[in-house]
Amino acid sequence: MKDLKWKRVLLKLSGEALMGDSDFGISPEILKLVANEINDVRKLGVELCLVLGGGNIYRGISGVSRGMDRTTGDYMGMLATVINSLALQNSLEEKNIETRVMSALPISAVCEPYIRRKAARHIEKGRVVIFAAGTGNPYFTTDTAAALRASEMNCDLIIKATLVDGIYSADPKKDKKAIRFDRLSYMDVLSKDLKVIDASAVSLARENNIPLIISSIFENGNLLKIFEGKGVFTIVN
Fold this sequence. Notes:
alpha/beta; nine-stranded mixed sheet; two-stranded antiparallel sheet; 11 strands; 36% helix
């Protein structure tokens, strides 16, 4: 095994990315692609844990716009992340990758409750741990949950996998002149109010000195390329 720049990594997957070409729900093809990417990276000796969003099923903030109580909406969003986590666990275990889903909301019939020491032990044993239900509290995004769990697990890196291949000066889908940044500081992201990642997540990563990579892994081999120093991404440190 070659020397690794990042030994323990938290991968944040957006819920919207799990939809594939559908308008909602979970794409089996995307799950298979993600499982293949994770399998390739694990072969390098990287210890992986994950946080999944729930936007493909439900977003609490969108419920508010329809008159729903924010707290109720956020809890529904947390349950959506549990559904996504169980789906990905199934895809990983089809590849004989030992996986544990640990939820910040106790749902003992389908997954383990989140206990920091137990989660760390699972990772040490080579298991992939998926942290579900965000932080367990309303008003916090899954980006913030990812930064929190990465801090608790002493991760060397956070990778946020989105539908775009980095951080741009503007929305590249709307502005063809948008420029992709190769590297930014934490303060650059905060001061420029770049929306690709939650500000509280950036602040937490900054406090704990954890670099952030924003990239799209929904192209074959892109996650592996990041660990090889290749690929297209923006690094925030």
